[in-house]
Design brief:
about 375 residues; single chain; 9-stranded mixed beta sheet; alpha/beta
Length: about 375
Amino acid sequence: MFELVAAGTVNPELRTTNRTRTENGEPRSVNDHQRSDHQRGYLLSEFRPRFTGGHKQTLYAWARPRSFPNLPSPTERYFDVATDARVLAHCHWHEQPAGHPTLLLLHGLEGSSLAHYMRGISDKAWAAGWNVVRLNQRNCGGTERLSRGLYHSGLTHDPLFVVRELIERDHIRSIAVAGYSLGGNLALKLAGELAEAAPPELKAVCAVSPTMDLGICVKALERRSNIAYEWNFVRNLKARIRRKAAAFPGAFALDALRRVWTVRQFDEVYTAPHHGFRDATDYYYRASALRVIDRIRVPALIMTAEDDPFVPASTFRDPSVTGNLNITVAMTPHGGHCAFVEAADAVYDGYWAEREIVRFADHHVTKSRASASTASRTPALSPTLRA
């Protein structure tokens, strides 16, 4: 069971199975006449959680070992995104890559291209015929020495650079961008910033548990019940600053680490001043996708859970989200943060959000190809028949 919060739905507060299943049990999308041309025809499968509880889902997905024997070993590729910054991607290319769609994946805060969900999505996308580019944010995945500066939660410059290079250098004609948590914020912010100027090759964006209102998410992270999550984030952030200081002597003051115990304090001391933001509050506002989400003009899918420990559900009922016909929000009662684990079977590992990313992206690439094929078969009007 889940709630579809999309523009034009009858009541975005309702969560009933009859809005997502037909009488014979088939999945049902939001009423097609109430949706954009982009979204018509896509049927979101129903999420059936293996167990309930946001913390349980979150921690289970984070800690459970996973293997992907059918996913080939990746090739490394470096993108020189700035004169002082290089990022590493782990890529899976089919033969004749230009003949396949490509999925660009963005990880969460202090994650990397090796995160379990990055490999899980890659496994499913590869099997569906997609090339996959698992992108590390600046300094992530052991790449501190490749970039002089830091990354931040709204740095869309790098994924946009990668998208453009894939189009111009690799001649990729169909691209989707998908991100988890911070990466989800990036994917949505990128689409919002591009707005009508999005390249035609960008077919869809997907976001799982996106931190698209950073201020609200950081405030939720500071709850007593979330102390373990915040401690883990801060521990990793502080360790990264120490590695950066070792790689670039004199560039980062380590004495300030002694007064950093929360993500907000880290952003006040390091992230905000490093990137020219006035303070953490200014950073959170300017780096949040919610500020530009109403401008998204490509098909967008957001998956989030009401029991997410630190991404409040209220964000996804904002009018700038529900009023955009290009966005579909699937809000489940359970699923935790970046988890969404169902029961597995012989052919499905139970990671629902990963599967839906590939299904959504595949739907819009197929639809785009069908439209292009129809257009190529339609004879041009003679000058006397044109309006």
